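Moderator note: this is an archived Q&A kept for reference. The question asked for a predicted structure of one protein chain; the sequence and the answer are reproduced below.
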Amino acid sequence: MKINILIYTISILLITVLNSFSQNTYVPDDNFEKALIELGYDSWPLNDLIPTANISSIKNY
């Protein structure tokens, strides 16, 4: 029982850590995503996702 709780705890911790490194922002508009690619904020292929870290510094456009 203690081993199961330990494995569960480690699994949750690992998922949380990995998720924090792979945060994306959903961009449902293909034309907007293409514009972000042209501006260098994203890369091909179109997948409706852009790394949040790439756009978090944008204040105005």
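Archived answer notes: The longest helix spans residues 2-21.
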